[in-house]
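Problem 12. The chain below contains 337 residues. Write out its predicted structure in token notation.
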Amino acid sequence: MKDEAQDAAVGFHRAVAPEQLGGVIWDADLKFRLLSQSSPTTFIRVRCPRIWFDHAVFGPATYLRGRMSNNSYTLVFVTRCPSAGRSLSFLTQHSADMIGVFPPGREVEGVKPRGYEQAVITVPVDLFRSVVENCFPHIPRRVLVSGGVVSLGCRDAGRLRHLIADLLGAVDDPASQLVRPEALAALEDDLLTAFMEALSNSPQWIGASPGPRMTARYGLLRRALDVIESAPADRLQPGLLCLEIGRSRRCVEYLFKDLLGVSPGTYIRQIRLNSARRTLLASDPGKGLVKQAALDAGFWHFGKFAAHYRKLFGECPTETLRGLVPTGSRPFADHRC
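Solution.
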């Protein structure tokens, strides 16, 4: 076990509860929706002198939407993507050995499959631009302004993977030297160099023009998700969604299954279950509160509500209300660790 000094700079492996997924990238404002049964998401954070390193392995499939840090560039390296995933931010599919570059305040939206793994560095604006100008001027200027996605070659991807594996091993090692400021400074230099060289060596940036048909489908999905997000939980229905966006049930069904991996009915049910969970987490235990939370979220059959809730979150609604933490899950503190 590491001492308190090291814990100030290096986070432990920990399981993150569903409502804590928004903290897996430093200084980002993200919201996640579970698309599959909840399972532990393991998470590590390392604070270097000027940059942050975050590593996460996602248990459940998730849809995320939000905004990256307003003060930094965020570089996301996909180290594992077991099945189809999508980046709605750049209109591309996820695959392993890709890096997404997000300028300050860049909107982010996408679908991460079960078992998705990412390594992220968050770099202050001045430092990032200085490194590009002085060391890696071949990185396209449009990427600095709008961001982009690049698929790495075997050599650069291998270097990054080895560096990240060594870093994760050091975090788990009780005798690790990461407690020392000079070790963290050296780690920062290695991370910046590996990420930036990988970007500079990759000539082909992806996602500039996915084609008119796919662009239209992504746009339609965004419209549908906006309708769902803006509607009260108890008013969400697939039929009403079809009317709002002017498409048939079959069209909407194919759209959701192709791009999100779930049916619109399943996605809406997950939204309603998340709404009920937020209510329960914010409530003091009391008689009838579970039933009221279910009704407010649009569930009238309480047995089915409880079954769906337990399947998605791995605990009963009453356990959430009483504040019981599932086995293997520990709270995540979003501070210097």
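Discussion. The chain has twelve helices and 13 strands. Students who got a different answer should revisit the alignment rule from Section 12.3.
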